[in-house]
Amino acid sequence: MLMAIVPLLVAFFGSVWAVVGWAGGASPFWPDPMMSISEAAALGNAGEVVRLIEIERQDPNRAWPVREGILGAARTLTPLEAAVSIRRAQMVQVLIREGATLTDAPARAALICRAADSGASDVVELLLKTADGSDPRANCPRAHTD
Amino acid sequence: MNATLEQSDSATTLAAPGARWWHRAAYGYAVIVALGLAYFISKSPLQVNDCVDNLLEVQRQGFRGTVVSQFLSHAFLRPFLWAQLAISFDLANGRYHEMYKAIHAVQLVATALLFINLLRVRSLAGLLAVPFGVAVLFGAHTFTGTIVEGFPINTFLTIVVCCLMAANLSLGRPAWWRDVAAAVLFVFAAFTVESGLLVWVIVGAAWLTGARGVSTRGVIATTTLLVGYFVLRFGPLHVGMPALIERSSGFGFRVLDPPELIALFGARPWLFYAYNVACQLLTVLFAEPKGGVFVFVRRLTSGELLPRDVMAVASTTGATLLIAWYVWTRRGEWRRGVFGHGERLAIVFLAVWIANAVLSYAYTKDVIASPAGVFHALAATMAFAHALARIERMPSFRPSVAGLTLVLMLLSTGWAVKLVGVHYHLHDTAYLNRNDWMEMGPTTTRWQVPEDPRGAAMIRELYEQAVRMRVPGTYFYPGQGWRYFESW
Lengths: 146, 488
Hints:
The structure holds 2 protein chains of 2 kinds. By secondary structure, chain A is mainly α. Chain A has helices at 6-23, 37-42, 46-54, 79-85, 89-97, 105-117, 121-128, and strands at residues 64-66, 75-77. Chain A has one domain. Chain A is built from 7 helices and 2 strands; from the N terminus they run H-H-H-E-E-H-H-H-H. In chain A, helix 4 packs antiparallel against helix 5 (89-97) and helix 5 (89-97) packs parallel to helix 7. The mean pLDDT of chain A is 89. By secondary structure, chain B is mainly alpha-helical. In chain B, a hairpin with a 2-residue loop joins strand 1 and strand 2.
């Protein structure tokens, strides 16, 4: 008879583990994200982006490491670059609201060109409103007018 | 079977050696699973939609204003839903997350306890059916909405608790206070949300099977209140019924918006209502369609079928077949009109299944069928216990024993995966709820409350609570989880 419910008992031990851990102040099955702002941005995790900026006081304007597997090979990039990589306009908006800036004109132009190249018109629109509001798309490696 | 899950009229027979132990172990098991879910729920922020608007409403109007305005509304009559919200809002005193997650946890534990109480576990075989029953209860797609939705108070879960209370009252030992409790429960449930009318269905169906926990007088009183409800709704209050334009709803292979619904069914709304009722009937038994959309069929024909789709349909259909087999094996009792506890639960399930579908005529949503899903789980657990009792009686090493065990094990596996999937889904929901807050920011413009400092402070507090929470999402979980765990 016991054989018939073995899979359910395995799931039950998971519940026991969760409840005991909860009672003991631990967080079983709820891994600590432990990620950089750029990783959070690359994963679309706006909650973690805001927490890292507002509570951990991490700088949204510097480049942070992104481990292998999130955006392909491991690399170091700014949160805005990560957000543009995944073409997520809402993430770009959150980052700008939380203090990410694009004051460096060449970096801004490169980012806008990349967004335009990927066809993320909503991201381009947001980025165009930053800094002096200039449109660098005519000077992108290829013509981008969308 | 009598020794497995209690079948007799007597609701109190715990005299068998160890019966009390099995009974307590069953409660313990269900409470631990419920608390396991509550742990995940506690880590998810309250959602933005259908949360902030409602809380602002009760904050602005206060208890009296909120409740009175509900009696004057059109299409929906839910004053007690708002009363619960207003009372809990005042009690929360700024600690919204703690208050509403605690209510959610209490409701889940209450569901587990009331569910187990209806099973009347009296033996080891009965106890072994409990893990299956609890998995079907919490893992059913009709129940998932009551767990993963981050409303301040999940009203669908409130109604599930009310329905289980009604069944416990009706199927228990006769007592005058049960009549009073059933009447009070009906009023509370009916004025909380429309599906609360199921309380009357349960009381009535149980009475028809011969259960006298709620006496004939109690049933008459509850029926009188039901009539009073309709008189009030369509008479002096002029609440009426929801129209086609109220919400989007699934039809065929996709969800249609209100304008599309009007274009298709404006002249023949009854056709759309009939479709909704049929869908709600089917989804409880087969997990297809979902929300009025034939997801499984669509994915099957487009070659996009995922293991989770197969598992969902196979597990639910398997549980339904098990119930059908159980009913078939008890056909002698049915013919003689002898209703034990199992038969009564099966009949109550049948009544709730049909009535729940009829009440969902206006639009389809899986969670609306959660009461029917719960009674489906109860009937399936009785059937599972019946099968285990058969195995217990059979000599070992017979092919039929191995075959039946294998079938039950496969069914258990499917439901175990579905139950784990609910936890997985809670990870996703927590991530999405938190992201919604972050993407919106602590702004008050969405709700036009910039000149309302109390409203602005509440939104700021809810936002900051969401910021402070650590939500990993499912990225760091083993890959491909989404293929196996249902998303709703």
